[in-house]
Write a structure and sequence with these properties.
The complex is a heterodimer of chains A (66) and B (300).
Chain A (H helix, E strand, L loop, with lengths): L5 H19 L5 H24 L3 E5 L5
Chain B lengths: L1 E10 L3 E11 L2 H18 L16 E6 L4 H13 L4 E6 L7 H14 L6 E6 L13 H9 L4 E5 L7 H5 L2 E3 L2 H8 L3 H62 L1 H6 L4 E4 L2 E2 L11 E6 L2 E6 L6
Parallel strand pairs in B: 3-4, 3-5, 5-6, 6-7
Antiparallel strand pairs in B: 1-2, 8-9, 8-10, 10-11
Classes of the chains: A mainly alpha (66), B alpha/beta (300).
């Protein structure tokens, strides 16, 4: 069974983008910065894992084409 | 030049005739001309207008593919897709991509995908290169209209470089070959991985900057507190110096130094002449020591 988790990548990418935007906003709070950074590193590791292991799945549809 | 499909007859009186079923242009020139006329008509309808184009998702997870399943086009598309990206569910409808029945099949395949309760994210319609006649299905009005009407954003790639088919013009995005279609559909995981490294670096810089800013803020606060403390200490020590001056002025030793004497009787200071009487024994404290005196008389 190939490893596929279609929604996973888009969700991870969105989460990462939110954290980067938080740092870029200029309002980053020092007490949250380390936690956010560690969270981002975890997401990056998950994305890397996804990109290295996820496989595409081809499914033939039986449509009546006449 | 046209191709007529029908039943020929030879009548003894009226001669040769054909009951035609279809008349289609054949030969490069005729096909091109028919396509040009259709293009003008559909352009006037706005089918190819740039404002109709929708953008495709950057990383689609569910994709429809319409092509000949056993073709090199299908294999090339999947090969490049697998090289570049993962996690995509590709639903394939095997359709004719050339010949008289191709337009009807292509239209039904497009409609099938558009009738699914949960729409896919992108619809890819592709085939490899061929002659103008081979590719005629993609200039068929029915196919072009079906592509334009698709609720799912479309990516059409017909393998030829010179002429662009009308189906491609109607698509939201076109690519030149099945391989190029896969490349246009998904990002390259190697580039994304490289981008992640940059993002990681930017994040590390972001957190470092946040910490530096916080440290600078606390340093500034410390400086302010230091200044306040110094000011407080300075003003207190000035006050103390003033008090010291006052106390020094009152110091009896200093008074004595200026030529005065302190008079005491039996160990008690006396400050009035009337406190002494004739015959008293008094002590006069002066600079350098004490003088014992007997009172001869008092004028008070």
């Amino acid at each position: 069974m190939p490893k596929t988790n279609p929604k996973n990548y888009q969700q991870l990418e969105r989460q990462l983008a939110e954290i980067i935007a938080w740092f870029e906003s200029g309002n980053a709070q020092v007490d949250q910065a380390i936690a956010k950074y560690e969270q981002a590193l975890k997401i990056i590791a998950q994305i890397e894992n996804y990109l290295k292991t996820a496989e595409n799945r081809l499914r033939k549809i039986n449509a009546k084409l006449g | 030049m046209v191709r007529v499909v029908g039943a020929p007859r030879l009548h003894p009186r009226y001669g040769f005739s054909v009951n035609y079923q279809t008349i289609t242009p054949v030969g490069e020139g005729s096909i091109r001309k028919a396509a040009d006329l259709l293009q003008a008509k559909l352009t006037a309808e706005g089918l190819f207008a740039p404002e109709r184009k929708r953008s495709l998702p950057v990383t689609p997870a569910r994709v429809g593919l319409i092509t000949a399943a056993s073709s090199a086009a299908a294999a090339d598309f999947m090969k490049v897709l697998n090289e570049r990206w993962g996690g995509v569910e590709v639903q394939l409808i095997d359709s004719l991509v050339q010949g008289d029945n191709a337009p009807a099949q292509l239209v039904r395949a497009i409609e099938h995908f558009n009738k699914l309760p949960e729409l896919l994210e992108v619809l890819v319609i592709t085939r490899g290169g061929g002659s103008g006649e081979d590719l005629a299905a993609f200039n068929d009005e029915r196919v072009v209209r079906a592509v334009a009407a698709s609720r799912i954003p479309t990516l059409v790639a017909i393998g030829h470089e010179v002429d662009i088919s009308l189906a491609e013009l109607a698509a939201d995005l076109r690519a030149s070959t099945p391989t190029a279609a896969a490349a246009a559909l998904v990002p390259d995981r190697r580039q994304v991985l490289a981008g992640l490294k940059l993002q990681q670096k930017a994040l590390a810089q972001g957190v470092a900057q946040t910490l530096r800013d916080a440290r600078a803020d606390s340093r500034q606060a410390t400086q302010i507190i230091d200044q306040q403390l110094k000011y407080l200490l300075n003003s207190q020590s000035e006050k103390l110096a003033g008090l010291r001056r006052v106390l020094t002025a009152f110091n009896p030793d200093n008074v004595i130094k200026r030529g005065y004497a302190i008079v005491s009787k039996n160990g008690v200071y006396i400050t009035r002449a009337s406190a002494a009487t004739t015959g008293d024994h008094l002590q006069l404290k002066l600079r350098g020591g004490t003088i014992q005196v007997d009172v001869e008389s008092v004028d008070a």
